[in-house]
């Protein structure tokens, strides 16, 4: 698809991988609607960095725990930009939950952010995406297949998001391609101790962590060149899935 002049809605775009994606799309001439939990200094910095690349950039504040606020986002983008071509479900919550820690409230909150919000957004965006011949990209996780111990709700939510990616690819075909991008380690969680980092790195055949730009570059490729790719989950994990 032609990125120049298109419009993308990116969730959790204020920092880290979301910001890298936003700036990469802005580099390609794509206007960006930057969803954030709070329009704080990180959100404004990302908006300004994108606008400095010559595209239109706005921040849209919403808690992904509020289904009505989530459902309203695509309409706000269409009202602002006149179109919505690309939905990137990047935001997520990543918190430990062991069997002993299980609480129904926490479980439901984690699934609401990581799984239900992408579903609501896909539903609310579907008409605009169809008429644009657009794309949905879901940020999954290589850990969906080989779960981290003690991250029950997170790993379950990401495994379900993979499944949702395939179902949405069928539901939105033939107009819209839907792809999952599954990082391994693209950016360490903050905080993380060095012993845990070493242990995780030892399982990565390429021997190093990735970078947010690895994710942003793949997404750029998928949007610009991936016209015949849908329903796939593409790992960007340095080969971690092999071990
Ligand atoms: N980092 C990695 O190496 C890695 C590895 C595998 C998969 N992934 C996936 O890649 C994506 C991006 O990773 P990341 O590490 O950059 O993500 P992150 O920093 O953990 O989270 C991204 C954004 O999600 C937003 N968010 C979380 N809960 C929210 C809520 N209830 N309402 C609104 N916004 C909310 C956060 O907003 P605030 O800033 O306001 O908190 C944050 O900016 C995620 O889907 C993640 O699961 C990342």
Tally the structural domains: 1
Might you state the CATH topology name? Rossmann fold
Number of helices: 7
Bound molecules: NADP nicotinamide-adenine-dinucleotide phosphate
Helix-strand string: EHEHEHEHEHEHHE
CA radius of gyration: 17 Å
Uncertain runs: none
Which architecture would the CATH scheme give at its second level?
A: 3-Layer(aba) Sandwich
Question: Which strand-content bin applies to the residues?
Answer: 5-15%
Features:
binds NADP nicotinamide-adenine-dinucleotide phosphate; alpha/beta; single chain; Rossmann fold; 243 residues; 7 helices
Describe the structure.
The protein is α/β, with parallel strands linked by helices. It has seven helices and seven strands. The protein has one domain (7-236): Rossmann fold (3-Layer(aba) Sandwich), CATH 3.40.50.720. The longest helix has 29 residues, at 104-132. It has a seven-stranded parallel beta sheet, sandwiched between helices. Residues 12, 14-18, 36-38, 63-65, 90-94, 113, 139, 141, 183, 185-187 line the site of NADP nicotinamide-adenine-dinucleotide phosphate.
Strands, helices and their partners?
Layout: E1 7-10, H1 16-27, E2 31-36, H2 41-51, E3 57-61, H3 67-81, E4 86-89, H4 104-132, E5 135-139, H5 152-172, E6 177-183, H6 194-201, H7 212-225, E7 233-236
Parallel strand pairs: 1-2, 1-4, 2-3, 4-5, 5-6, 6-7
The structure holds NADP nicotinamide-adenine-dinucleotide phosphate.
């Amino acid at each position: 698809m032609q990125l120049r002049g298109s419009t993308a809605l990116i969730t959790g775009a204020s920092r880290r991988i979301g910001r890298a994606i936003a700036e990469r799309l802005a580099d390609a001439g794509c206007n960006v609607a930057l969803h954030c939990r709070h329009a704080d200094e990180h959100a404004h910095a990302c908006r300004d960095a994108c606008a400095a690349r010559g595209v239109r950039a706005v921040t849209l504040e919403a808690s992904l725990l509020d289904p009505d606020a989530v459902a309203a986002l695509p309409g706000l983008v269409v009202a602002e930009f006149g179109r919505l071509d690309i939905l990137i479900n990047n935001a997520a919550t990543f918190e430990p939950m062991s069997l002993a820690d299980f609480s129904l409230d926490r479980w439901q909150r984690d699934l609401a952010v990581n799984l239900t919000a992408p579903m609501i957004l896909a539903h609310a965006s579907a008409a605009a995406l169809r008429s644009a011949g657009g794309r949905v990209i879901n940020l999954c996780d290589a850990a969906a297949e080989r779960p981290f111990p003690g991250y029950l709700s997170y790993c379950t939510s990401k495994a379900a998001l993979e499944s949702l990616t395939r179902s949405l690819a069928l539901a939105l075909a033939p107009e819209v391609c839907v792809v999952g991008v599954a990082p391994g380690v693209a950016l360490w969680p903050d905080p993380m101790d060095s012993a845990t980092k070493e242990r995780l790195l030892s399982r990565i055949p390429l021997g190093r962590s990735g970078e947010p730009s690895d994710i942003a570059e793949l997404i750029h490729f998928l949007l610009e060149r991936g016209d015949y790719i849908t329903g796939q989950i593409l790992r960007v994990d340095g080969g971690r899935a092999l071990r």
